[in-house]
Design a protein that fits this description.
The chain has about 950 residues and is of the alpha+beta class. Among the domains are: about 5-230, Beta Polymerase, domain 2, CATH 3.30.460; about 240-385, Nucleotidyltransferases  domain 2 (Four Helix Bundle (Hemerythrin (Met), subunit A), Up-down Bundle), CATH 1.20.120.330; about 730-945, no CATH class. The protein has 40 helices and 15 strands. The strands form 3 sheets. An 8-stranded antiparallel sheet has the order 8-9-11-10-14-15-13-12, sandwiched between helices. It has a 4-stranded mixed sheet with strand order 3-2-1-4, sandwiched between helices. A 3-stranded mixed sheet has the order 5-6-7. A hairpin with a 2-residue loop joins strand 14 (about 895-900) and strand 15 (about 905-915). Helix 26 packs antiparallel against helix 27 (about 595-605), helix 29 crosses helix 31 (about 660-680) and helix 30 (about 635-650) packs antiparallel against helix 31. The relative contact order is 0.04. Mean pLDDT is about 85; it is low at about 1-35 and about 395-400.
Length: about 950
């Protein structure tokens, strides 16, 4: 954080005509060497040449407006060429962020000083030396810190000795007009030294900007007076209040950014682990100890190793931010998905086996963000040790010190290491310290964290095979109230990856998709946190099934180890479930699991996606689905374990992913499979379901005439009774009652159990009706999550769609009329969905970077009556309509559609028959249909990207 200047950048009061290059006196500032810049200073801003050109053209100018025009013309050209030179040099050295921010600062200094010179020399020359005509131009904020990125704001403070005079106001106004004409985003204030003290006392934002003030040009003595008065009258003896204010500001900022370090589209500047966190550390250090360079943090606050990681993190984040500005052509701080791909490419990242370049880049990003968090903790506790910062409120509430096992003790309400030699002499302590901290309910002291991080070499194969070390680790998972806290701290310090080397590759590993909200390691820890919450009885109301399973009792060692390993195989050029199962097989014996337990852990990891896939991608009303799943799990024990693992896995993906719809699907699959395993697979038959459905309908229609009920029951084929919930069958009975040949009847209601709006349609059947309904729903932005369509014996169609809005919620009551109107117009032919969807099915820019290969599979074994077509491809508006329209055009009858979306990925599963009511057995017909579906997907994707 050295404040870079260049001697040729300062000209303050020298006349333009002489092209002076000497720097004016600057209080407490250093002048860096030319190699601080990413390219030669003259390539960025040739001060002598520009001043000569300006002087020549200004002589011919007739008035102040002409002088400003001449100045803008020359400086605009200089600004453009300077930016181009820096950008070209940065492209050749894409990670040299310190040199590039120095270059942008130098360019900005040169522009500001030249504008000041023009204003003083030609626009508002001083005719006398009165105090009222003194002014110092100061850089503040990021500009004052000399960390200018391509499109940073230029924050200026004009310091004057007394109340602003007419000369001062005119001078500042002229400078601002020139800056605005140069299209610079300038933040500015004109204040006296006394104003600065007064305003800074009441406003911490102003106080922080004053902390970073840097002299750029004008009256050096006035700048020195400001600096001296700030330290004497404002900063001195106000450290604690400044620290507390910055910490409150930091917490609020993190909350605004989502409160998580691992959000998939992080804010590089304001997010947790971002540049602002590092800047806050420097502000506090500068405020408390007058630190002017980050190197001064070494010793009292950071070790040399910690400081080196501080610099690496800051350099990396600055490089990322610079590339983002250059890509966007403006100031941006949100590292969006599309931006991530471009930044990774600019910084030289390349694809590796099983991983895209962007994923490797984002893993580096999150590793640096994690380190920033660790440095912040060390710094804040160091402040607390110096009594500058108050201890966390949680720790202040502890009325007594817990009793700790040697070699640990309590230091300032944190677990510390009393005897470092004794600690290191027994490497098992490298694992035991985390379990002891959880047992005692204490946070680790920074000195302990430093000692652990500096001695990771002690975690070798001998320690990994040590029975006591493995017993302690498993004990931490199984016996502590909040094991995720210990795991997270072990992970941040590098202990988890050292103790379980197979886990190291997934640390900070980003999954480049819109489905997963966390890195792989954080997702794993979130899953274990959810499991722990369920065991503590905190989620009984929302998760009754799995809460009951855990209450009855399961093999917890197997469950926790499978949870830890379920995604451990990600990021390699192999199915992560298969690789993860092999890894789990090797790891399980380390933790003293018996052979049968090892087998179960291996099976759970290998098939941890099976239940989720069956529930979300298959028709649970088809007995074959449950029968096949029951054959796969084989036992109630495995069913229980897999159900808990599946629920925790889905909930651990991120906020909003788990919902009533997924809960209902998993609940249904579990209950049906549990019954089948208990009573026998033969209990899964269509006859019993059909009889139960007819009985329920008779009860629901108790006010109908007996003959009407008989006619309604005889109207439908067998699959209708097995495929729809009883409440929907009652609705269809009423919709079809007395329906005319041209009638289109519908019923839209909230389905609480499925967290969706249930849309029921009844009308005379005709080709493509399923597709037309899908098109109508797409036109109003509805997301179809499930659908059923059945043709009755008298030629009526009963189509039931479950839909959600763009946010994944049921439609509010006030939105239903428009939904109803658009569907009616489309079904009546007043609106042609194919044409109306064209302007609506565009992908958002931030979503275009995702690549999802298309896979189409035909399955004649998964259902007794239907061929199952599973289409796995890139999700987009109108996809379901395009697929169903293609199927309809090829005389394919759709009985049901199960729609699953995982971020940008869609898996649409169709249960179909051909026009004769048969399965698609012909390989040639399947290939032809697959080709046409791919063509529809491709043309739709091109339309969406147009």
């Amino acid at each position: 954080m050295t404040l870079p200047q260049d001697a040729s950048a300062a000209r303050s009061s020298e006349p333009l005509a002489r092209g002076a290059t000497a720097a004016p006196e600057r209080p407490d500032l250093t002048t860096p060497l030319p190699n601080d810049l990413i390219c030669p200073a003259q390539d960025i801003f040739d001060g002598a040449r520009i001043r000569r050109a300006l002087a020549a053209d200004i002589r011919a100018a007739q008035d102040a407006r002409a002088i400003r025009g001449v100045t803008v013309r020359h400086l605009k050209s200089a600004l453009e060429s300077g930016r181009a030179a820096i950008a070209a040099a940065f492209a050749a050295r894409p990670r040299d962020s310190r040199a590039v921010v120095s270059a942008y600062t130098f360019l900005t200094d040169s522009i500001v000083q030249t504008v000041l010179d023009v204003a003083l020399q030609y626009l508002h020359p001083r005719t006398d030396d009165t105090d009222g005509k003194r002014i110092a131009v100061m850089a503040v904020g990021g500009y004052g810190r000399a960390e200018m990125v391509p499109f940073s704001d230029v924050d200026l403070l004009f310091v004057i000795p007394w109340k602003a005079s007419g000369w001062t106001e005119s001078l500042v106004e002229s400078m601002l007009y020139i800056f605005w004409d140069l299209h610079l985003k300038v933040g500015h204030a004109t204040r006296t030294v006394r104003d600065c003290i007064r305003l800074g006392r009441d406003d911490f934002t102003i106080r922080t900007s004053l902390l970073e003030q840097r002299f750029v040009g004008g009256d050096a003595a006035l700048a020195r007076e400001l600096r001296e008065r700030l330290w004497k009258d404002l900063f001195r003896d106000t450290g604690p209040e400044f620290v507390e204010a910055k910490l409150v500001e930091r917490a609020e900022r993190h909350q605004r950014q989502g409160g998580q370090r691992y959000v998939v589209e992080p804010n590089v500047k304001e997010g947790k682990g971002g540049l602002r966190d590092l800047q806050a550390l420097f502000w506090i250090a500068k405020y408390l100890g007058g630190v002017r360079d980050a190197g001064e943090l070494v010793g009292e606050t950071f070790t040399q190793s910690e400081f080196d990681s501080f610099i690496r993190a800051e350099s990396f984040l600055l490089a990322v931010r610079c590339h983002m500005h250059l890509i966007a052509g403006r100031a941006v701080d949100q590292l969006t998905f599309d931006m991530q791909v471009e930044v990774a490419d600019r910084m030289g990242y390349a694809d590796t086996a099983g991983r895209r370049a962007v994923e490797v880049f984002m893993q580096d990003y999150f590793r640096h963000a994690t380190r920033v968090g660790e440095l912040t903790r060390i710094f804040l506790v160091a402040l607390e040790d110096r009594h500058v910062k108050t201890a966390p409120s949680l720790q202040r509430l502890l009325s007594r010190k817990p009793r700790l096992r040697p070699p640990f003790h309590v230091l300032r309400n944190r677990l510390a290491i009393k005897d470092e030699a004794a600690f290191l002499n027994n490497p098992v302590n490298m694992i035991g310290v985390f379990d002891e901290a959880l047992r005692a309910g204490l946070l680790l002291h920074p000195a302990a964290m430093r000692l652990i991080a500096a001695n990771l070499h002690l975690i070798d194969d001998r320690l990994r095979e040590d029975p006591e070390a493995n017993r302690i680790f498993l004990n931490m998972l199984l016996r502590r109230v909040n094991p995720e806290r210990g795991l997270r701290r072990m992970n941040e310090l590098g202990v988890l990856g050292a103790f379980i080397p197979e886990f190291a590759p997934v640390v900070a590993m980003m999954q480049f998709n819109m489905y997963h909200h966390f890195t792989v390691d954080e997702h794993t820890i979130q899953c274990i946190s959810t499991l722990s919450q369920i065991e503590r009885g905190e989620l009984v109301e929302s998760l009754p099934i799995v809460s009951g399973i855990l209450k009855e009792g399961v093999d917890r060692k197997v469950l926790y180890l499978a949870m830890l390993c379920h995604d451990i195989g990600k990021g390699r050029d192999e199915d992560h479930s298969v690789l993860g199962a092999r890894i789990a097989r090797r790891l399980a014996p380390r933790f003293s699991l018996k052979p049968a337990e090892c087998d179960t852990v291996e099976w759970l990891v290998r098939y941890h996606l099976l239940m989720s896939d069956m529930a979300q991608k298959r028709d649970l009303s088809d007995p074959r689905t449950v029968r096949d799943f029951a054959k796969a799990v084989k036992s109630r024990k495995r069913l229980d374990l897999l159900t808990v693992l599946t629920v925790c896995d889905i909930r651990g993906v991120g906020p909003g992913v788990w919902n009533n719809w997924k809960a209902q699907l998993l609940r249904n699959l579990y209950l049906q499979t549990e019954t089948a395993l208990r009573d026998g697979l033969e209990q899964l038959n269509r006859g019993s379901r059909e009889a139960e459905a007819k009985r329920a309908l008779r009860e629901a229609l108790s006010d109908w005439d007996r003959n009407e009920i008989r006619a309604e029951i005889q109207r439908h084929y067998g699959p209708y009774w097995q495929g729809l919930p009883h409440v929907a069958q009652a609705i269809f009975a009423r919709l079809m009652r007395g329906i005319g040949n041209g009638d289109v009847r519908m019923d839209l209601q909230l389905d609480h159990d499925r967290d969706a709006t249930r849309a029921c349609f009844a009308m005379v059947d005709h080709p493509g009706i399923f597709s037309r309904i899908a098109g109508a729903l797409a036109l109003v932005g509805a997301n179809v999550v499930d659908a059923r369509s059945y043709v009755s014996k008298d030629g009526l169609v009963a189509a039931c769609f479950w839909v959600q809005d763009a946010e994944g919620h049921p439609y509010r009551e006030e939105r239903l009329p428009r939904l109803r109107e658009m569907i009616h117009k489309t079904l009546m032919g007043e609106v042609v969905a194919r044409d109306a969807l064209v302007p609506k099915d565009k992908l958002k820019k931030r979503e275009r970077a995702f690549i999802v290969p298309t896979s189409i599979a035909f399955d004649n074994e998964g259902s007794e009556l239907y061929t199952i077509i599973e289409v796995d491809t890139r999700d987009r508006p109108g996809l379901l309509y395009d697929l169903t329209r293609t199927l309809a055009a090829n005389n394919v009858q759709i009985a049901s559609a199960v729609i699953a979306t995982y971020g940008e990925q869609a898996v649409d599963t169709f249960y179909v028959k051909d026009m004769f009511g048969l399965k698609f057995h012909s390989e040639a017909r399947r290939r032809a249909l697959e080709r046409k579906l791919r063509e529809a997907i491709k043309s739709g994707a091109e339309r969406a990207r147009a």
